[in-house]
Amino acid sequence: MKMKSLQKRWLPIIVVIFAVIITWGLIFSGINTEFALAFIAGLLGYTAIRIVLLYRDWPSQIRLSRITNAAAITAATIAWFDRILEPHIPLPRLSGWALEPETAGFLVRLITREKPKLIVEIGSGVSTLLMAYALKEREGCVIHSFDTNNRYAEKTRKLLKAHDLSDRAEVHYVPLEHIEIEEWEGSWLSSADFDFIDNNSIDILLVDGPPREICYHARYPAVPILEKKLGPGAIIVVDDTDCPEQAEIVRLWWNKGYFSAAPEFLPLGSGVALGWML
Question: How far apart are CA 45 and CA 272, in angstroms?
Fold first, then answer.
């Protein structure tokens, strides 16, 4: 389909080029010069119109191609999730603010392999549901998801309830507060929001919020504030690390001595980083 579309776009231009060559040949063969030049002018005008139309439509074609590819990837991933997780009802689409399909699949595999008892997530959504499914057969395992947007938090709660997984994940709405930690200053969740979590109990921390538009290095406080709550060897998962600012946050954690080894950056979705606490 894509090849046919390209052929359809470029064929008129190729025809015009050959026609121009033939016309010049006619001129040099003694055919009426005025007629030949008029013919060339018409062909050049037609070519210019085709080129304008080509470049006008090209961005929309690129967007359409990206949307189509993303839909195909999402469909394939949903089919994989259906086989691995066996959901009670169809899963929601992995689009918009949701984790990208590759990242979501990796997260489910990570949970299946590591068998965590407690997962803490900053930023709720479809990821909360998928992680809850990954834990559904493991008694005593739970997810605490914290969201600074009450609308998203409520939407995630309804999603969990619809899939009968409210016992596996609890979603907390926590408004942003102005805080200062180390040399960082900005808006984040208050440390008091995590008081009910025991020290050294978090096995996996997924950092997928708050939005970076909140302030510079908006996700930096996650590890400093939760340091005592994170168990030895706890895994930190950070999404969107293709964004230089997010990757820089992960490197700051490493440089400040929070990790036991250099973080790994994986080419999944919009970028994923893994770090391991001391």
Answer: 50
Which option is the CATH number for 87-276: 1.10.8.60, 1.10.940.10, 3.40.50.1820, 3.40.50.150?
Answer: 3.40.50.150
Query: Each residue of 132-169: pLDDT tens digit?
Result: 999 998 888 999 999 999 999 999 999 999 999 999 99
Q: What is the pTM of this model?
A: 0.75
pLDDT digits (tens, 9 = 90+) for 187-202: 999 999 999 999 999 9
Spell out the domain ranges in the chain.
2-82, 87-276
Tokens 């080509």, residue?
Answer: 54
